[in-house]
C-alpha cells in the first residue's frame, strides 16, 4: 500500500486529527542514508510527524522543518515537509547502532539522547519564519512533538509515532497520529481522548494490525464520531537542484571555495537528503568564484 495521510475532525467540532502511513517513504529514507535500525526508527518517527505537521500548513510553498539536536550517538536529525506532507530527512550519524532495549524495542531515546532540543521552523512564505523550540522530554520523539505544541503553540496535543524494522533491516510498518483540541473544547474531552489512546495501545501494534491511517485514527478515537476531511498520498520528496547546490557553494565564501578548487580541482557534492550527486568541474567552480 502506498503511503497516505488522512485529516479528520470530530463531529462535535472540538478535536482535529491526522494520521499517516509512511512505510514506503521511511524505507526510501533508510536506503538513501544506509541507516541502522535505530536510526531508521528515529528518523522514521520524525518523518511521520513532519508529514502531518506539513500537511496542516496553508499556503503555496509553505514548509516545516523539524530539527532535533540531542546528546545521543545519532547526532542531529532533520526533517522537512512541504505543505502536502511530502517529506525528506537526514540523520547526522545514520550508522550509529545501539543494543535493543530490555523490552526488545529499538532504543530511539538512547539514540537521539535524553537531553537536547526540538526546534520547529514554519516557513509560511511571510517575511520571517515562525520558530519555536522546546527541551527534549526523553528523545522518544512523539512526546517531544506533543510537548512542542503545548509549550510553543498552547495547543493540547496527543501524538503517537511508530516504526517497525524487520529482521533484514527493511521497514515493515511506519506511521502515526496527531490529535489536537480546538479552541472551546470542554473539559473532559482530554480524559476521553487519553482513555481511548491508552486502550488502543502502542502505535506499532496498531500499525501491525492494520496500517491504513483512517483505520488507525478510528481505533485511537473510537469514542468520537469522525468526519474525514481529506485523504492524500504522501511520499519521500526532495527539492534539491543544481542551482541550490551552487548557492551553497557560493555561501562557503571566497576563501573556502578557492582552497577547494586548489586542493581538489573539482567537486562532487551529494545532497543531504537524497541520493543525488552534483558534479562541478574546475571551470564551473571558477565560474562560481568569479560571480561572487
Ligand atoms: Zn536531494
Give an account of the 3D structure.
The structure is a single chain. This protein is of the alpha+beta class and 292 residues long. The protein is built from ten helices and twelve strands. It has helices at 23-33, 37-55, 108-112, 142-153, 189-200, 203-209, 213-220, 242-251, 254-264, 282-291; strands spanning 4-10, 15-21, 63-70, 77-82, 87-91, 116-123, 130-135, 157-165, 171-181, 226-233, 267-270, 277-280. The strands form three sheets. Strands 8-9-2-1-10 form a five-stranded antiparallel beta sheet, sandwiched between helices. The protein has a five-stranded antiparallel beta sheet with strand order 5-4-3-6-7. A two-stranded antiparallel ribbon has the order 11-12. Strand 1 (4-10) and strand 2 (15-21) form a beta hairpin. Helix 1 packs across helix 2 and helix 9 runs antiparallel to helix 10 (282-291). Bound molecules: zinc ion. Zinc ion binds at residues 238, 240, 271, 273-274, 276. Zinc ion is lined by residues 238, 240, 271, 273-274, 276.
Descriptors:
binds zinc ion; single chain; alpha+beta; 292 residues; five-stranded antiparallel sheet; 28% strand; 10 helices
Q: Which helices and strands occur, and which strands form pairs?
A:
Layout: E1 4-10, E2 15-21, H1 23-33, H2 37-55, E3 63-70, E4 77-82, E5 87-91, H3 108-112, E6 116-123, E7 130-135, H4 142-153, E8 157-165, E9 171-181, H5 189-200, H6 203-209, H7 213-220, E10 226-233, H8 242-251, H9 254-264, E11 267-270, E12 277-280, H10 282-291
Antiparallel strand pairs: 1-2, 1-10, 2-9, 3-4, 3-6, 4-5, 6-7, 8-9, 11-12
Helix pairs in contact: 1-2, 9-10
Zinc ion binds at residues 238, 240, 271, 273-274, 276.
Amino acid at each position: 500500500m502506498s503511503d497516505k495521510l488522512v485529516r479528520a475532525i470530530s463531529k462535535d467540532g472540538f478535536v482535529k486529527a491526522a494520521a499517516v502511513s509512511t512505510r514506503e517513504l521511511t524505507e526510501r529514507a533508510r536506503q538513501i542514508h544506509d541507516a541502522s535500525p535505530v536510526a531508521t526508527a528515529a528518523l522514521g518517527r520524525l518523518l511521520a510527524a513532519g508529514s502531518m505537521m506539513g500537511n496542516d500548513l496553508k499556503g503555496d510553498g509553505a514548509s516545516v522543518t523539524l530539527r532535533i539536536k540531542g546528546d545521543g550517538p545519532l547526532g542531529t536529525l532533520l526533517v522537512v515537509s512541504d505543505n502536502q506532507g511530502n517529506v525528506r530527512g537526514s540523520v547526522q550519524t545514520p550508522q550509529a547502532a545501539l543494543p535493543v532495549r530490555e523490552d526488545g524495542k529499538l532504543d530511539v531515546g538512547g539514540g537521539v539522547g535524553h537531553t537536547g532540543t526540538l526546534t520547529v521552523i514554519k516557513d509560511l512564505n511571510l517575511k520571517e519564519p515562525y520558530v519555536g523550540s522546546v527541551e527534549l522530554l526523553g528523545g522518544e520523539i512523539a512526546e517531544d512533538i506533543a510537548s512542542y505544541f503545548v509549550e510553543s503553540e498552547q495547543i493540547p496535543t496527543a501524538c503517537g509515532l511508530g516504526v517497525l524494522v524487520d529482521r533484514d533491516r527493511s521497514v515493515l510498518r511506519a506511521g502515526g497520529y496527531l490529535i489536537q483540541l480546538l479552541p472551546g473544547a470542554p473539559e473532559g474531552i482530554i480524559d476521553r481522548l487519553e482513555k481511548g489512546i491508552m486502550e488502543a495501545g502502542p502505535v506499532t501494534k496498531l500499525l501491525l494490525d492494520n496500517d491504513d491511517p483512517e483505520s488507525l485514527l478510528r481505533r485511537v478515537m473510537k469514542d468520537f464520531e469522525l468526519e474525514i476531511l481529506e485523504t492524500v498520498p504522501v511520499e519521500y520528496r526532495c527539492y534539491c537542484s543544481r542551482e541550490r547546490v551552487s548557492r551553497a557553494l557560493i555561501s562557503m565564501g571566497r576563501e573556502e571555495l578557492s582552497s577547494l578548487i586548489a586542493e581538489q580541482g573539482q567537486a562532487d557534492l551529494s545532497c543531504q537528503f537524497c541520493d543525488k550527486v552534483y558534479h562541478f568541474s574546475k571551470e564551473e567552480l571558477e565560474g562560481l568564484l568569479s560571480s561572487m
